[in-house]
Specification:
Elements lengths: L7 H13 L5 H9 L6 E5 L7 H6 L3 E6 L2 H8 L9 E3 L11 E6 L10 H13 L1 E12 L11 E10 L2 E10 L4 E10 L2 E10 L3 H10 L3 E6 L13 E7 L3
Parallel strand pairs: 1-2, 1-4, 2-3, 4-5
Antiparallel strand pairs: 5-11, 6-7, 7-8, 8-9, 10-11
Helix pairs in contact: 1-4
Length: 246
């Protein structure tokens, strides 16, 4: 997708992001808080609008973040308590921060926003370099399902119909060689149409496990979600916990 870089998503999605995505489940905050150490500290990669960071800070966790989008971070800073969360600006996959953390987390499929396998490997190594001994890296991702694409590796469908005057359409092209997906999410509301691009490079759970091993991390556990439901062959998402051996 020509013209798409690490700042595109945040710049174009920021005016619509919090309206499009609901608040985070309590189970997510509970699990992250349990793994944040004592005293509790955490680093969020791609902190964005603070959907996780703000409620996690309210739970007493000293949260820091990394993000490439000033527009998304401004959404967080406008929320109660969001202005007190320090953010390092840059690509979450390779930017350096000071110190080590008992918990680093990356939510909402965002590891896939790094659009090459090499960048994803670099991210895991960067995480390992900033984890304390015994610290954990927690991510959640969708499980890829290429059955949604037709014989031409495309998909067109309705994402949602929220009211009589609002709907979302999705147009996607899939490259099976690079495992990359380029999408246009089209929002129609009150007679106005907005096109929002998304570019991803998905990875299978086993591929993420190998990236972790290359970085010196070990898979500690995997669940179907933060509520600890089992991860099975029917699961559409996974929450994976990697540990830096002590």
């Amino acid at each position: 997708m020509d013209g798409y870089d690490e700042t595109t998503y945040g710049r174009l999605w920021a005016p619509h992001y919090d309206a499009a995505y609901s608040s985070v489940e309590d189970a997510t905050i509970d699990l992250l808080a349990r793994h944040a150490g004592d005293p509790p500290r955490a680093l969020e990669l791609a902190i964005g609008s603070g959907r996780i960071a703000v409620p996690l800070r309210e739970r007493g966790v000293d949260v820091s973040g990394i993000d490439a989008s000033e527009e998304m971070v401004e959404l967080m800073r406008a929320k109660p308590g969001g202005g007190a969360i320090p953010v390092t600006m840059g690509n979450f996959g390779d930017v350096s921060v000071e110190g080590e953390f008992p918990l680093i987390y990356l939510a909402f499929n965002t590891i896939f926003a790094l659009t090459s396998q090499e960048d994803q490997i670099t991210c895991f190594q960067n995480v390992a370099d900033h984890l304390e001994s015994g610290g954990r890296f927690i991510i959640d991702c969708f499980v890829p399902d290429v059955r949604r694409f037709d014989d031409y590796n495309t998909h067109v469908g309705v994402s949602s119909i929220d009211s009589v005057d609002e709907h979302w359409l999705e147009m996607t092209v899939y490259d099976p060689v690079s495992q990359s997906v380029s999408s246009h999410m089209t929002k129609y509301k009150d007679g106005e149409t907005v096109v929002l691009p998304v570019k991803l490079r998905f990875a299978w759970p086993s591929e993420l496990d190998l990236m972790a091993r290359l970085a010196g991390l070990e898979l500690e556990d995997r669940f179907g979600w933060y509520d600890l439901r089992p991860f099975t062959e029917q699961s559409k998402s996974h929450m994976s916990i990697y540990v830096k051996p002590g």
